[in-house]
Amino acid sequence: MEHKLSKAQIEAKTYVETYKLEKIIGDMLNALVYSKDPHPTVFMIKYLASLAGPSELQENGILIGSQTLQPESQVFKIPAPKSKDSEKVEEIKSHSAEPKNHPKPVPVFPHNSKSLVQKHMPESLWNKLCHIKTKLNHDLHECLTIGLQHPDSIPGIYAADSECYEVFHEVFKPVIEELQQWTSSDKHTTVLNLSHFKCVNCDPIGEIVKSIKVSVDRNIIGFSFPIGLNSSERVEVQQKIQEILDPFLDSSFTRMDDSRAGESEPSLIDLFKDKYSHTDLAKDWPNGRGIFIAEDLSIAINLENHLQFLSKTTNGDLEKVFNKVLYIAGQLNARFEHNNLLGYLTSSPDNIGTGIQASVILRLENVLKKSNSFKFDLLACNIIDGEYIELMTCKTLGVNEEDIFKALANAIEYLVSEEKRLTPKIEEVPEIEESDTRRVEVGGVEENFESNIEEAQMKNVEEVEEERLKKVIDEEQ
């Protein structure tokens, strides 16, 4: 029998749902547990305060004080209750004295945050930019949301739309320069002609090269980037993307929903959720997201960027995976956000420019016995379990797609050749097959091998018999 809720319970349930309290508290706890802040109460106070505007806080008697976590700092001042008349008088005085653009409190990053933006955004710069919004109505605080929620984010700042890179360039530029080792004088070029991406597959059976993954991230023109999308906008972007992808989605593609993600191995969705599930990038999950999977190409929608094209292989065929992602990206090139200075505009500054992320895993058991220090142009190197090396792209701006391709091809070719050179050679001993008709050459004369064996056996029998008779005669004597 269904339990009927009381009037009070219905009102409470309606209140919680109307103000989305369950989601707010859940998101706050996720962010707190992820950051492991040593001051959980202060963290939660600041988290909740960040959800309200400064004027709303001030109108309700909550004043943001020091931005530090010192115990003696009075973060909030909550006045004692006053009569309605005195509240009205004070409210009139407060608003009349309040400047038109009252400074917003400087965002406070988690104590264990690794973000670069903290050192490139002094309070004076924050006060200068905090009230400015882009044409799509995004402000600087929205760009900092992921950095505030995700302590492991290195940039700490994500663009909510393409205009953010221009409107808030005083914050984005120094972060990009440090991340990419780039200056605005470095000319960025784009190379998408597939004739530039040719190389030899030096390990076609995957004996040494165990995995190659290449992905390209893009955002389509005219829409907020995923961090800036609300629920209805995200669905609109998803529908638009499926419309432009339709000519490429033949019968070889399967639509993979969230429940089937990672059936055989971690998919793009699983990897995204592991990294961003506690942040606003995953809000309203899985609404407006999706992934299309074919044998050698995956296309993800509305994860970190509007689109991510991924191709992978389990041998040394770098040319194949590069051509796979760049072909479809090139066909849709006119639809993507791009400018001459920064190249393709992605949500995160660490992928801006080419939008390419690449990873190559090689088994180099013998190479690693000789050396564990490697240096390659445009690539980072990570040793795994003492016998594997992972090569990863570490620069996407100020270099073009061909530069990255050649860096990977040269590194793979060198490491594969070194591993083969250092692998101990095993000498093969030819097997001797028994055959009635096999003939061997002895002293230049061919003789039947079988007859030689029989002759030897006959001689052995005669010798044994002769020895036996000799022994018998000796005994009789």
From TrEMBL:
Keywords attached to this entry: ATP-binding, Kinase, Nucleotide-binding, Transferase
Record's keyword annotation contains Repressor: no
Phosphagen kinase N-terminal domain boundaries: 98-181
Domain Phosphagen kinase C-terminal residue range list: 208-422
PROSITE patterns: PHOSPHAGEN_KINASE_C, PHOSPHAGEN_KINASE_N
GO molecular function, one term: ATP binding
Binding site for ATP: 211-215, 357-361, 380-385
Entry's Gene Ontology BP terms: phosphocreatine biosynthetic process
Family: Belongs to the ATP:guanido phosphotransferase family.
Name by which UniProt lists this protein: Uncharacterized protein
